Amino acid sequence: MTVLRLARSELKRMTGGLLPKLTILALTMVPLLYGAVYLYANWNPYGHLNNLDAALVVEDTGAATSDGTRLEAGTKVADSLVEGNVFHWIPVADSDEADRGVSSGQYAFALKIPKDFSANLASPGSFDSASQAMLNVTTNDANNYLLSTIVDKLTTAVHSTVATEVGEETANQLLTGFGTIHTQMLKAADGAGQLADGVATLRDGSATLYQGTTELSAGASELQAGQLKLRDGANQLTDGAGQLSSGLSLLKDKTASLPTDTQTLAAGAAQVAAGNAQLNAKVQDVASQLEAADQGLRTRVVESNNRLVASGVLTQEQANAILADFDAAATSSPVAAAKTRLQSDAAQIQQLADGSEAVSVGAAQLAAGTPALKDAVSQASGGADQLHTGAAALATGEQSALDGAAKLSDGARRLDSGAAQLAEGAGTAADGSRSLADEIGKGAGQVPNPDDAQKDNLSRVMADPVAVSNVSQAKANSYGAGLAPFFLTLALWIGIFMLVQAMRPITQRALASNAPSWKIALGGWLPFLAVSVVQASLLTLVVNVALGLDPAHPVLMWLFMLAAAMAFSALIQGIVALLGSPGKLAVLILLVLQLVSSGGTFPWQTTPQPLHVVHEILPMGYVVTGMRHLIYGADLSMILPTVAGLVGYTLLGTVLSTLAVRRNKYWSLKTLKPEIAV
């Protein structure tokens, strides 16, 4: 008995009457009913979302933007949604009504635009009150679980569009602000430059002032030294006048014995004449020193004023006023009074000297002129007293002048120190202001100052900085095309699984023959293969022609489906042949395991780790992947290895079937009366 004869015998048995023929026909249609009908029902659900009623609530009251225009973003979003016609949008008056409609199922979901939507969109123009604009979505999974996912995609697209538009406007305002900052910083740089020039002028003037105050301090020190000499001279004059007064007093006391002491008087008169001459010389010397000191001080004041006028510190009028004040002070000062007194005393001393000389000359006549001499001595004594008093006053005045000169010198030194600090500070300020001007200029160059075209471009980039360039190496044309590889493979397995309900994996007649086990196994499998080939061919034809799957490689796809039918039929036939009725449960379990591990919907890598092992072992995952490559036009390098694997699964199925034949050739009571009938 040949393999083909065994297969033909089983096929004749299955088609021997009308009912068996109808059964085979129904079994042949199982994959078509499961795969094609399901794909037809779900071929393009996203293209019919406009049949879903969705509530649209627009409560936005609008807002004024920073440039004075009116923003009505809520109305704009609502209009764009209605024009897009993705869903059947139904305007609803308020949120409560929309929520009631979603709860009752009247609306699939509700999209609500709150009253502050535009205001929040415009808020990024103010750093203090920026707020996010919200789109409120109400869904109800009792209406449909997948609606939440679909609505999320819609609202994400709306969010991206609105955020890009508003972000572009906000970025444009920000860039305009940068241009304003740039302009103002340039003005600030110009002002800082002018400030630097002014401070440089101040630095030069303060340096000149410092030079003048240094010279003034030196002059004041010299004036103090001159006043010290004048004071010492006045003290010496006082001492001399005191001595003169004492001498004249003594002379007065001695005039009583003048007649007897004429000769002594002559000698004393000569001495007095000499002393008067010395005193007069000292007085003249003191007067000359005072005059020289006054002239020297005035000269220094004039020179200092000239230098200050030349450097611009003082004006000529201010210098003249200072000189006039100095002359007035010099005229009314104690020094001037002392000079006047000295001149008067010098005249008196000169007179005394002349008188003494006359006394010396007329000593011989002194005895006769004793009364006159006595009066003269008395007058001289009085003049000496006056001279002593004047000299004392001169000394006091010179001390006051010395104290004033000391204060002037100390003030000049302080002024010089302050001028030095001013000059140093002005130099530092000049350097700092110049650095400030330079740095502001550099900063202005670093602040963006885009033109209108640049602002438009930058605004678009800042509002939507990341763009996605999708390059699809292989793409499904529709939702149904995306599910087709999985459901075609699943339908093929289910269709072949249904064959074991009407077809026997191994016939008892074949087992009773003397044919080798492998021939019997192949003979039992070939009917399954024949029907599964018809199933696969019919399913492929209907999906490609009626549904318009339009695979990239239609012939290769059909041949690949035949290879899958070969492997599936061999495995299912071999398992049921080996295990009997429990084998059907095993095939069903394999179906469930492959259903969750083949990666038909979500990638198989996202399943729990134990299911990864199932994916690697069982054939359905490989068939789904191969179908995707053939339908979408991806790389075909994995098709041949996959087909080789399907051949391996086919061989595994025939091995299981052969083992079943060998085991079932030996009958037992369990064979004659099985616990579960096949």
From TrEMBL:
It comes from Pseudarthrobacter enclensis. Its main location: membrane. It is a multi-pass membrane protein. This is ABC transporter. The keyword Transmembrane applies. GO terms for molecular function: ABC-type transporter activity. One of its GO terms (cellular component) is membrane. It holds the Pfam family ABC2_membrane_3.
